[in-house]
Design a protein that fits this description.
Elements lengths: L1 H20 L1 H31 L8 E6 L5 H12 L4 E7 L1 H9 L5 H5 L9 E6 L5 H9 L4 E6 L2 H42 L1 H9 L4 H43 L12 H29 L2
Helix pairs in contact: 1-9, 2-7, 2-9, 7-9, 7-10, 9-10
């Protein structure tokens, strides 16, 4: 047991020494792996950050109902009663046209325009908030059939479209992560294959003196795992650096929409999972490369 542990420690130390002896090649390998891993990580961070921009209340369907310009008070009361009967209505709020015009007049640059109007061009309106599980399209269609209703608009439709796009983005990032994970295995496979070529004589001597395949394979497995770890460290540095570099620009963009943009960096557990996953993929690439070499050398 002690000999087995000693050989593991020697294999790890040997892998680290080889990296130190070839700093340029090791750095380039880590950079290639890091850039490959940073792409799906950056995609996941981007999707998570955009999700924070979507107000939590907007996930509930919201519907605006605009009345005819000449709708009377009796029409308003009747329409309000009918809207309250729609399925899934959680909140119903009446917005008088005079109040709507006054709110527009408070907007910078529009006060003079509103003051010059001879009549109010805005209609009375109702704003309905529906339950999340409500069928918003059905409620909108029933609202359109109410007399003296001029227009019905689903204000949360854009949120639903954005969420659908974000779902596509998450799926695409997942596919990209799988593809680049395969690429990491292939890159490690080729790197270890080159190491095997330079140490062919050493491997043959080891086999002649009775070394097992596990004993021969072990140093290369550590080399592959260490390469994966270094690549993951580079990927984490790239994503964190890019996120904080872009944060001020995203903040200014979000402020134009009245939102607050905070970078949605992964949790510590997600970072650890990424690093360990990269090490495992590097180990797999090394295992495949050594196994192919030993099979061909028989």
């Amino acid at each position: 047991m002690r000999s087995w542990l000693r050989h593991h420690a020697q294999s790890l130390a040997g892998a680290l020494r080889r990296l130190v002896r070839e700093p340029l090649g090791s750095a380039l390998n880590a950079l290639v792996i890091g850039v490959a891993l940073a792409l799906p990580l950056g995609a996941f961070v981007t999707v998570a950050t955009i999700e924070r921009w979507v107000p939590s209340a907007a996930t509930e369907p919201e519907m605006s109902v605009f009345l005819d310009l000449d709708a009377a008070r009796a029409d308003v009361d009747r329409i309000q009663a009918e809207l309250a009967k729609l399925p899934g209505v959680r909140e119903l709020r009446f917005v008088p046209k005079d109040k709507a015009l006054a709110e527009i007049g408070k907007t910078e640059g529009l006060a003079d325009i509103v003051g010059a109007l001879k009549r109010n061009p805005l209609p009375d309106a109702f704003v309905l908030r529906l339950a999340p599980d409500a069928v918003a399209d059905e409620a909108a269609e029933r609202a359109r059939r109410i007399g003296r209703v001029a227009k019905v608009q689903l204000d949360a439709a854009w949120v639903q479209r954005l969420q659908a796009l974000l779902a596509v983005g998450r799926a695409a990032a997942g596919v990209l992560a799988v593809l680049l994970g395969v690429g990491l295995v292939a890159a490690t496979f080729n790197t270890i294959r080159l190491q095997l070529a330079t140490r062919r004589d050493e491997i043959e001597v080891s086999r002649l003196v009775g070394a097992t395949e596990a004993w021969i394979r072990r140093p290369f497995l550590y080399s592959g795992a260490v390469q994966g770890l270094l690549g993951a460290a580079v990927a984490v540095a790239i994503v964190v650096g890019a996120t904080y570099y872009l944060a001020p620009f995203l903040g200014r963009l979000a402020s134009l929409y009245g939102a607050e943009a905070r970078p949605a960096l992964p949790s510590l557990e997600a970072w650890v999972t990424t690093v360990m996953g990269a090490a495992i993929l590097g180990w797999m690439g090394a295992f495949m490369s050594v196994s192919v070499h030993l099979r061909d050398a028989r």
